[in-house]
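Section: protein folds

Sequence with per-residue tokens
===
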Amino acid sequence: MQLLKPAKIGGMSIKNRVIMAPLTRSRADNPDAVPTNLHVEYYKQRAGAGLIITEGTAISKQSVGYVNVPGIYSEKQVAAWRKVVETVHQADGKIFVQPWHVGRISHPDFHDGALPVAPSAINPNINIRTPFGKKTTVTPKALTIEEIRKIVEDFKNAAKNAMVAGFDGVEIHSSNGYLFHQFFSNCSNHRTDQYGGNIENKCRFLFEVIKALKSVMPEQKIGVRLNPMLNSFSGITIDEETTKTFDYIVNKLNDYNLAYLHLSKPWKESESPFAVHDLIGHYRKIYNGFLIANNNYDKDSGEQEVISGRADAIAYGRLYISNPDLPYRFENNLLIVTPDSTTYYTIGPKGYIDYPAFQQRSL
């Protein structure tokens, strides 16, 4: 199988092309947002992946918008992540962390009553889980230029901390309607300064962050995640400028020696006249580097994508929740277990570390 053949991401060798996609699992249920021994076991169990990309990991208290997500901005968090990384490495795995700022996809409940921040003061009007139950988002505070610079610095510090923790690299979460995506999109960015108005300005924040990360880590340890055709989710709506914007981003990423570009196909096929329907094919023609494709692949469709050369590796999300030894199952045509969705965002070991590897299951 092509999926099971080794590859190189940046200067790093990976043992197969079955990537573990980032998955929010809400298990850091402590006041310091510190990964726990559950995280150590969870990622160790999945070290058979060619590369693990961690759950979205907060770069600051301001960046949080999900319950019980871990951070990478304090010494305690870095020390805890180091245990995760060392355990994955001992199991012959590779692991990137995914620094994250959700922007307006948050709520004052996460910020002691303060407003979430965003490029512009535009409410996404979606329902989210807060520490006090499900609530509707509010109109965020528009970021000042000085505040944007502070967030760039927060991403830089997160990358520095990732290197201290021993991670093999970082994946910038510029996707899925979060802060970077909010800058990219006309529906969420009405700025008239150097961060809005035209395509170059709307993308400036991303490339400032890449520049900042390059100052504290090797360029080839940086990955970028995009979901260009996300539509009618997380308050994002595509328009006549969306494809031009993401074409600009992907073309400009070719100027860097990055680890990879991680592309998510939209969760639902868009009926918008502005949608690109063959997302992977479209950006394979533009991007010159290592391309990871994501969303709703199974073994056969993932294998075909790699055989065709449209993608260099496939990221699997939900399948990795309930099949910790996914490459082994692919190789041996073994049962693929369906995950229990009721345990995706709960706390404790149930639905997190209690899915056995196939060899353990058959004992």
